[in-house]
Amino acid sequence: MDVRLVLLAKLEFVTHFPSTTSASRQKPLSQLAANIFSFVNYLSYIMRPWIRSLRTVDARRVTQRCFSSSRPRLELRSIWDLDNKIDPVYRECTNRSLEIIKFPEDQPPNNVLLIQKEGVPSVTEAMVEFAKYLKTAYPATNIILEPHIATELHSSLPFPIHATPYTTLPPYPNRNPYHLKTSLTVTFGGDGTILHAASLFSTSPVVPPLLSFSLGTLGFLGPWKFSDYRAAITAVFTNKARIMRRSRIKMEAFSGSTQLLGDLWPPDSQSNGGRGEGSGVWAMNEVNIHRGQNPHMAIVEVFVDGRFLTEAVADGIILSTPTGSTAYSLSSFGSIVHPRVPAILLTPICPRSLSFRPLVLPAEVEVSLKLSDKARGDEVEVSIDGKRWGGVRKGVEVKITGEMGNFCGGGEGGVPCIWREGSEHEDEWVGGLNGLLKFNYPFGEEPSSRVFSNIDGLEEKLPCKSTKRDL
């Protein structure tokens, strides 16, 4: 309040109401109350212009804050608001093991799904940096995140983020939204992150291109360094990227003539182009049938193309792809198979028989597994790429088939993994076998002077050191 207004009010009060004397004190109380009420009314009258000016200033400040100094409103939108994905085509390049991925000239990838390894702040920072660059370089691109990641990060990104809603029902309840909307998948993490991304398309015969940055523990499947992310994105959006397909295997379970569905996404029957194929679940690494919590060994009957092969008494059976031959199957002493070899690997888990050796079967065969009536337990567990599919009881038949043929140009089959620039062949697999898995390293000494391709794709010659140990 202005001091001058207060002094003016006191002056006016003295003018209208003389100082209290002993005579005025004898006035009735009603007259004194009337005088105080008159003074308050007069004070509010002379202060009215000042109060009106304060309201005008406050309104001006609110207007400026809303339209000039506030941050842009950050949004979390539903994935169903996006247009359907733009599919690329694949053309065979000079190296027949790789293909060139091409999007329409005026239609680059419109919806990009980002998958990160959780619980690592450095990985989160890398994904945020990547997303900001992608939106800056290609503003028309839409970013898709998993729901829990989108809830945490959308406030730190200055553009809308799309995710699968938690509460609202989708327009197609039996359709996986990632199958309809994703043009490109980018992972930030290790091999487990890549498997998680592939599992989002485990009920679809078509998988979008997969760009993987090695930010995890091992990184055997991720050929790209994160420092090269700008070159990777440029290669994809300018149709210069190359891919190598990693074949998958398909698992179906039947109880009589009824096909069983597991705990993963529902079957996406419309994504197979109306070819009438049965629904199933695809695995990038392996299908694992194991005894679960049952303390007794499982007894599983194994058939190949309908012919009885053996009755396995073991903790379980692993049916893996060539890509999965360096995963759980390798830990169970399975064979190592190059990812371009069309095959199905059958590996026992802790078998009771010493003569039960791993098998490598052609990809076109059908492997059937049944829980024997001799088994003590009534059920075995089925896991697909580390995710629980469900339980299989006696009388249920599990069928495993592989992906067949040359995928070039078809756009279907396998997981199309974007290859690192500068690598002319599939030698990344050889380098990873030596540098990461330490293939055939002798005990008690350093590796000899051999040239390996390390995870970054650079060649380094390891020093020739030999350490002799006294026996």
UniProtKB/TrEMBL annotation:
GO terms for molecular function: ATP binding; NAD+ kinase activity. Pfam families: NAD_kinase, NAD_kinase_C. Keywords: ATP-binding, Kinase, NAD, NADP, Nucleotide-binding, Transferase. InterPro entries: ATP-NAD_kinase_N (IPR017438), ATP-NAD_kinase_PpnK-typ_C (IPR017437), NAD/diacylglycerol_kinase_sf (IPR016064), NADK (IPR002504). One of its GO terms (biological process) is NADP+ biosynthetic process. It comes from the Eukaryota. Belongs to the NAD kinase family. This is NADH kinase pos5. It comes from Orbilia oligospora (Nematode-trapping fungus). The lineage of its organism: Eukaryota, Fungi, Dikarya, Ascomycota, Pezizomycotina.
